[in-house]
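Re: that backbone. Tokens:
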């Protein structure tokens, strides 16, 4: 990703403008920016308070720039047969990168995205509109020339409020990727929140969450323990250096009420530009050993990244 044009607007992510993820005193909302990608003419990085949130390529919605987003894309690809429509709940809207990806690869999908910040939602609507000719053409190609109508609905609301209100079993995939600038709010890290996401899933559905953490990965271990307290099969995906505690970064935990497509997922991860490691079974047992699941009673936000995390 390289820098280019910058379009600035005001906004404040989280439960509302100025809210802190730990529920503390409100502060001035951070700046919302769109940074142009010089390598891709109509691609943009959404930043909030200087922290990258989403990368969107308006000409190629299938392009997933960020490594952890590519992992989430693999999970979506393996959630059902190729091109079959999905019902997807995105907890955390941002630039709607994955919603665009699903619309392009699975025409006819029905999607709901929860974005807590109206300023972010408004900026994305104005500057990164969903109704792009490239997206329509990609949908036609994926549908063999037939137009398969889908729908992406953006709801400006808190992610937990949305997931607790949707009908049971109404989604095939639920993705949690919520940050108040650089932290996941505490009320979106607990086992109770995960249980609400599980309730929203169809029996064979897949849940995936983006976790930001660094050495010694104490928060990630508790988040994974919370997910495993709700679901059966689960796995953790991250770059090897992150798992070895060498740096701060993004881990993806995936879970389901059915066996996960671990073999196919491992093959896809190995082919990525920056291959990630998949941890499951006994290795995942060892990863979470001695870690208590986060609950609403002792909920915590994800750690604050070090100053050089996004340099």
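Recovered sequence:
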């Amino acid at each position: 990703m390289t820098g280019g044009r910058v379009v600035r607007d005001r906004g404040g992510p989280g439960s509302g403008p100025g809210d802190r993820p730990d529920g503390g005193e409100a502060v001035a909302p951070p700046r919302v920016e769109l940074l142009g990608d010089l390598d891709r003419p109509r691609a943009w990085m959404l930043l909030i308070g200087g922290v990258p949130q989403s990368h969107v390529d308006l000409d190629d919605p299938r392009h997933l720039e960020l490594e952890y987003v590519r992992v989430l894309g693999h999970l979506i690809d393996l959630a059902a047969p190729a091109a079959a429509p999905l019902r997807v709940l995105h907890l955390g809207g941002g630039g709607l990168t994955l919603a665009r990806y699903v619309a392009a690869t699975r025409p006819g999908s029905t999607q709901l995205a929860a974005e807590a910040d109206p300023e972010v939602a408004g900026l994305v609507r104005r500057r990164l509109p969903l109704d792009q000719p490239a997206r329509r053409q990609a949908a036609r190609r994926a549908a063999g020339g037939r137009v398969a109508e889908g729908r992406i609905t953006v709801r400006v609301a808190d992610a937990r409020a949305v997931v607790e209100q949707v009908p049971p079993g109404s989604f095939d995939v639920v993705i949690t990727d919520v940050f108040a600038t650089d932290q996941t709010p505490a009320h979106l890290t607990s086992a109770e929140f995960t249980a609400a996401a599980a309730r929203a899933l169809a029996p064979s559905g897949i849940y995936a969450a983006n976790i930001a953490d660094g050495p010694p990965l104490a928060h990630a271990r508790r988040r994974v323990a919370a997910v495993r307290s709700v679901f059966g099969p689960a796995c953790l995906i991250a770059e090897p250096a992150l798992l070895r505690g060498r740096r701060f970064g993004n881990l993806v935990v995936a879970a389901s009420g059915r066996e996960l497509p671990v073999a196919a997922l491992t093959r896809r991860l190995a082919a990525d530009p920056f291959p990630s490691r998949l941890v499951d079974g006994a290795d995942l047992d060892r990863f979470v050993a001695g870690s208590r699941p986060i609950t609403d009673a002792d909920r915590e936000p994800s750690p604050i990244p070090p100053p050089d995390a996004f340099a």
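The mean pLDDT is 88. Residues 67-77 form the longest helix (11 residues).
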